[in-house]
Design a protein that fits this description.
The complex is a heterodimer of chains A (about 140) and B (about 120). With about 140 residues, chain A is of the alpha+beta class. Chain A has 2 helices and 8 strands, in the order ααββββββββ. Helix content of chain A is about 20%, strand content about 40%. The chains are: A alpha+beta (about 140), B mainly beta (about 120).
Chain lengths: ~140, ~120
């Protein structure tokens, strides 16, 4: 167990992706189900809005379900196993995967001002912060 | 196992799908390899790329798939995968297609590897 954790430590400094891969493998063994651990995801605060960027290779629009409520964004995506009829398979590393994430946002967002674009396997969700949480400029007066 | 030597991944042996150099992070993307009657297909998950970011080369029985990922909002990544392939593949016949962040490379088989019907002649 000790060596396992020291490995993780080292990996974290070099590359966080390696860690999620290893965790994915462990989780896989535990759950015996495809786990989408290797999909990179970032949530960025852009001042007036949050932007979620997620890599979802091979996911079609119809396989994606996004909901936003108050300050929680829920993302569900599932890629089915690919059937290549009549072809001999030499290597299968991609397989099916499922992503299910609920992200708590620091402040509520306006669902009406939320946009999602899926392009080349990258999902980009822009969520405008609700009016009360928009950054405001303060005019400075000189006396 | 009959085709073990025909398409062999050269980076797979240590089970480590990552390597990191000082300047950039290199990732070995997950890959499926299929063989049909006429061609091999190499399928790789490589999301968020433009066609000009790919570099695919076939040289001396080595297929090298490389790409520089620069997705806005994510750290840059360098994708790299190398495969030893059968001899006799024609580089000018290799084609690649990119959809939904998935790269598919088609490598038509040389004539010597295509299945052939043998007609039996009665003497």
């Amino acid at each position: 167990m000790f060596t396992l954790w020291t490995d993780f430590d080292r990996a974290i400094f070099r590359n966080p992706w390696r860690v999620t891969r290893q965790l994915g493998r462990l989780a896989d063994e535990a759950a015996r189900a495809p786990v989408g651990w290797n999909q990179r995801m970032n949530l960025i605060d852009k001042g007036e809005a949050f932007e979620l960027v997620a890599e979802l290779p091979g996911i079609k629009e119809s396989e994606l379900d996004l909901t936003v409520q108050h300050d929680v964004l829920t993302l569900r995506a599932e890629r089915a196993a690919v059937q290549q009829e009549g072809l001999l398979s030499h290597r299968q590393e991609r397989g099916a995967y499922r992503v299910q994430r609920s992200l708590s946002l620091p402040v509520p967002v306006d669902p009406e001002q939320t946009k999602a674009v899926l392009k080349d396997g990258v999902l980009r969700v822009t969520m405008a912060k609700s009016a009360a949480h928009q950054p405001r400029h303060i005019a400075v007066r000189t006396d | 196992m009959r085709n073990e030597n025909e398409l062999q991944n050269t980076v797979d042996g240590n089970g480590d799908l990552m390597e990191s150099t000082e300047s950039r992070v290199t990732v070995h993307p997950p890959v499926d390899i299929y063989e049909g009657e006429d061609a091999y297909r190499v399928v790789a998950d490589m999301p968020g790329l433009r066609s000009d970011q790919f570099s695919i080369s076939l040289d001396h029985e080595m297929l090298i798939v490389e790409a520089q990922s620069d997705v806005d909002g994510l750290p840059p990544l360098h994708y790299l995968r190398k495969f030893r392939v059968v001899s006799g593949l024609d580089p000018s016949q290799v084609s690649a297609d990119y959809q939904l962040g998935v790269l598919t490379i088609k490598l038509p088989k040389p004539a010597t590897l295509k299945p052939r019907k043998i007609t039996v002649s009665a003497g």
